[in-house]
Records
---
Amino acid sequence: MSGFNNIVILTGAGISAESGIDTFRSAGGLWEQHNVEDVATPEGFARDPDLVLGFYDMRREALREREPNAAHNALALLDAEFAGELLIVTQNVDDLHERAGAKRVLHMHGELKSALCTSCEMRSPWDAPMSAKDGQRPPCPVCWARTLRPDVVWFGEMPYQMERIYRALREADLFVSIGTSGAVYPAAGFVRDARDLGAQTLELNLERSEGSHWFHESRQGRAGDLVPAWVEEVLGG
Ligand code: BJW
């Protein structure tokens, strides 16, 4: 697979699964362990902020132990060596693409290691617990209000940088989706958007996803096997 000049790659939880990070919808995944309405909606946060802050504190802490895998490393190599336009749009809130060395990365669902202040609306780098200690939550580094929340996109909220993503999709000649179930919009609709606009479309996923039939080609297997092989095709061709 070669001859492309403008590639948009969408990644989901499946690309980080081999690094030991739970996916959402697999058996034993995050949504079997936690009620999605409680931990991934603004209403859940309003009802029980301590529960939600604890959920994200736990995941931020666990991320320290995780390392990028062969799929993240292959995309970082592609980012470094592909001369054309490239954008990695990740739904993941982990930082494994960056830790593998990728630069052209956009986090459409936010980041675990970022805090959003609901008072001043500033986003700040964050690598500590956010839940209350000694009865007080930590202050915002910008306005000092104790009103931080995880800088992640919950159901009902607008994902980040949608204009930039749609611009990239309009210009893409290849759209590749890696390790995502295609269950969550607007990301699940990108394949149709890209295809309608003339791009070739390829899915790399452990199993067929909800949107597999929209892709020109769908390959099944582990990201750690499929992604390095595909990157070799692109760079070698
Ligand atoms: C492997 C593997 C291995 C495993 N190798 N593969 C219709 C149109 C538009 C919107 C809606 C609509 N209907 C409903 C909506 C609203 C809603 C929505 O989509 N709901 C659905 C339940 C239907 N969407 C929203 O509310 C979004 N906002 C929005 O729509 O705003 C309005 C808008 C309109 C139009 C344009 C633009 C905006 C916001 C969605 C926010 C999602 N947030 C979460 C939590 C983020 C923070 C956190 O991490 O806690 O994002 S939910 C969760 O799901 C997380 C993920 O990013 C997201 C997607 O999950 P993902 O990555 O696909 O994981 P899984 O587990 O589902 O799948 C993993 C896959 O990997 C599986 O297929 C495995 O087989 C595979 N796999 N191991 C390769 N080793």
---
Amino acid sequence: MTAAPDTPAAAATRITPDARVALVTGSSSGIGEAVALRLAAEGIRVVVNSARSVEAGEKVAAALPDAIYVQADVSDEAQARHLVDSAIAHYGRLDILVNNAGVSRPVPHADLAAATPELWREILGLNVIGTWQTTVAAMPHLARTGGGSVVNISSIAGSRPAGSSIPYAVSKAAIEHMTRLLANAVGPEVRVNAVAPGLVETPWTQGKDFFVPIAQKVRESTPLRRVGRPEDVAEAVLGLADAAYTTGQVLLVDGGAHLI
Ligand code: NAD
């Protein structure tokens, strides 16, 4: 039996000045917020980030022990660098990077004309290039710890013919291969892994028309018979962040959806 995680308040009692530091992109809501909370509950100091939802991001950081909020759009190279620089300016170290910020726009896969070049650029610009440039900015700091860890957030759409649009699914496939290529390039100082969630109930999916039929199918036919929670993904992120002999892996966290 595993022990229940601490609450952030309980973790505050054991945050030490040399505690590890994690940067979680897109952590003002949904999966990123759950990851920030889960890492903080382990006594890790967290940099919370979003591009636009400043108030929500500040609220997440304020609820955590020794966390800061930094506004930055990681699809912009200068802002991605500023985000990492702010983490280092405040804490002097960076141990864990979670590349969670992502975007999609629902486009039926058969409607090829609707997946415009502008849509491709927007989605690849954040999901792929944003992940890349944040990782590049963070790498020297992660390497300096001697045990740095990157966890990228992919999707079941990265390996299955599914997902809200073809550009989105392709962006997640690119993240998965980037994960393997980077793992090979930056070891032994830094490990790079990815978590690929199935359908998760977050502000991104809740109340959206496309969510209802997919959620119903997930509840009826996947082995675990429920839609994912942000906390399910956060648990896997923490596990990979700390898995000392694991690198270049993509872990599906989908309630078994890939089996149907
Ligand atoms: P969400 O909309 O709740 O959260 C997205 C977060 O990213 C927010 O904090 C938002 O402010 C931030 N963000 C958006 N653009 C940004 C930018 N340019 N720079 C920095 N931050 C930015 O969505 P979510 O469902 O929690 O999704 C988080 C990640 O999980 C995404 O990468 C998504 O592809 C992935 N994912 C989600 C699901 C799902 O079913 N919800 C499934 C698989 C993968």
